[in-house]
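Lab meeting minutes (informal)
Scribe: AK
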Amino acid sequence: MKNMIFRAALLTLLLATLLALTACTTPEAPPSGDNPPPPSGDAEYTVTVKDNKGAALAGVVVNFNQNGTVVKMALTGADGTVKATLPRGDYSVSFTAPDKAYDYEAEKCVLSATVLALNAVLYTPLSETVTLYNNYKAYYVDEGVFRPVLAPNDMTYFVFVPSRAGVYRISVTADKPLDLGNYGAPTYIWEQKIAPREDGTVEFVVRNYNVGDTPQQTTQYLFGIHTGSTGLASCILNVEHTGMPEVAPEELPWNDLQADADIKPADFVHYLNWKPTFHNLPITDPDLTVIFNESDGFYHYGTADGPVVMIRITSPSPYLPSFTEICESDPLRAYIYDDEGNFVRKEGYLNLINAYAAICNADGVCPLTKQLEYVIKTCGKHKSWWDFGKGMHIFGDNIVEVDTAWLFACGYYTVEKDGATLEAPAKLTTEAAGRALIAGDTTLYFTAEAMEAATLTVTGLGANDAVTFAGTVYRPVDGTVTVSVPQAGDKSFSITHVGAGELELTLTLS
């Protein structure tokens, strides 16, 4: 029995010895994982630079930095890429340009012994902040892509100052929704925003007159981004010029109308000492009638052969200053629209008014033509002179008919002799001259009451007759004497006539 026990113990000891020898001769297992040591030597590093839309940025200086020192610089080509052969290692990459700065996520712009390529996105850096109404702060922005730091659970304001006209779109990109809106202007922040478009962007039009060199000339647009409860600290802000708007009427040049080439004053004859009197048209008379006479090109009061209608150009009417005075502060202009309300053109009337002013007589009036009718009607409509029903704008409490309101600055002449009012001739020429009988062996003294430069023509004179004007004696040639009468000064005449023949006297404008 003891022998059996001894044999079992010996067998157990032998088995343990064999196991120990086996463990010592088995090869060691390879280490776990797949992390070979980094390679050594040089490597080619590639950096591609783009904007946030994916467009390559050429001409950007790429700096390879190691331990705070620039070890290599390279300039991006047309594809926005640079390649640099450097000793393998860790590098931080920064970006500069000769004429601008960039904003980028510096913590992501790194290379290493095993990371040999980098795609970098560059943004426009935000400029200094500005203090707004009620001490709010805002960033100034122009066109570009920005990566602003947002106020947590609050509003961050931005002031956009356009440097050129165009259509602009403002958009934000972030991992979570942000509240973007237009909030007015730096001088006054609206409590309620203008909601963005359906795609979440803000779009507006900047006209040429919104762009200037001073704050008074430049329109500043205020918009804000509210983070709400998103917890976001940054986003991508894009202010882009998307094109030019349709040309606005305000930006088009004025078409300056010119006066008709053949404009002339009415050829009135002021007979001897018959003095003409100017009367304003009875604008409040509902039966006021003026008729255009095709034969002479003028409007006439009452009938086609009635007194010529005269319009005040350089003299004031009972309702407005003179047209020339109006033009000094606000040239007569109008926007023209068709019957459907579509804009057609812009018209200016300064040159035209000045041309008619040049033919006005001493009373500051000239004959009313179709061209002047068009100007007064068009300006009156554009300036809202004919608004407010029959009362209208320029007539106060007076009731005026719409169809005749445009005649507010018009009138006509009558001629008086010896206290009696005579019918004023519409137009007189040498073919319809005034006649005067002078008894033989008589001297006639008279004053020519022409209100502007005129010409006196006397026909039917005999060889012994004479016309005296301003101390000068004129003898007839072929029975006629012609004398120039100035607008101002002595206008006293005398005619010495021998015999009983009829003389014809005609006084016409020069």
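Next up, CB showed the second protein from the same session:
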Amino acid sequence: MKQTQKTWQGTSKKRRNSAFFIFVFLGMLTAFGPFVTDMYLPSLPAMTSYFNASTSLVQLGLTSSMLGLAAGQILFGPLSDKFGRRLPLLVSMGLFLASTLACIFAPTIEIFITLRLLQGIAAAGGIVISRSIATDKFKGANLAKALAIIGAINGIAPVAAPVVGGAVLKVTGWQGVFGILLLVGILLATACVHFNESLSHAKRSKEKITRTLSLFKNVLQKRKYVLCVLQMAFAQALLFGYIAASPFIIQQHYGFSPFAFSLFFAVNSVAIATGAGLSVKFKRQETCILTSCAGMLVCSLLVYAALANDASILVFESLLIVLLFTMGLTFTAATTLAMEAAREQAGTGSALLGAAGFLFGSIVSPLVGMGDIMLSTGITFVVCALGSTLCGIFAVRRKEPVSDSAAGSVC
């Protein structure tokens, strides 16, 4: 009996850890963030009427979810270094299902905003642990390729999320959008049950739970890691500024329907995914970062000029596509360099990397709604692109010893 059970476990382990399962599973986990933030974007204008709330108050639901996504990664990252990847994943999935169900029945905008915070914390587990699993499995050039493939898969989420959200909104209202999120959570929870642990007991942190935060000190001492994190955070702040402003610019200023907005958003998401996928064509990830930063800075200035002069939707959308494509280039490159620098504490390093982006995004999101949204959005784009460029230049200029992990072999 024991021999049979042992044989079955070995077979099951091999099946669950196939390359196909790993890539699809990691792609779904990293897509968690876009689904949580993007799927209900077409609903934002409608929710102002439902809750009888102002635009800025409704946008706080987006801000609170991003704060949750930041805080949750700080929590789940070190825990995954301590207890492995699987257990924290299961806990995060359970919390996500409970908070999403509660969002559907939220009676006031204040309660909804609070629940969105909890939902963001829960979804963060999947985001931060997915990068840690990739780092467990791959090294060097193969890690860059794995993250690029995951980034391309992740591109499906922002494409599908607003399209599905816009379609559901026409039939059921914003509650139906969260019903779809609930189904996605159930699917991911099932996948988590079948996931086989990727971090062995020997490689787990030996620190006590009360001292897990001390792991952050180790990664924060790596200057190249910190600079890559900041470069990525400014780029993500630009992205979240676009996410927060685009429903109001496209629907209210240009007069398009929620479903038409979702189609615009889908096209723009393809641009991001394409940039992430093509980043591996660069021989050096440092070159990719510099190319991305230059593109973001130039394009953000052009987008600002277009918004300030009330350009046509064709001009605005064309410039936005190029801007988001250049942004996609940096997501894979900065993630690869940062995770290589923090390989010894991959969970903690992934936590800070993801948390910084969502923290910056939570600050930027309400700013684009202040005053004239056209001008405030353009200014936000330029400031974020400039910050990303400066951090990127200093990150690639810093010379550090090449680690053994750069060999490019697969674990």
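CB comment: The chain is about 80% helix and 0% strand.
No objections, moving on.
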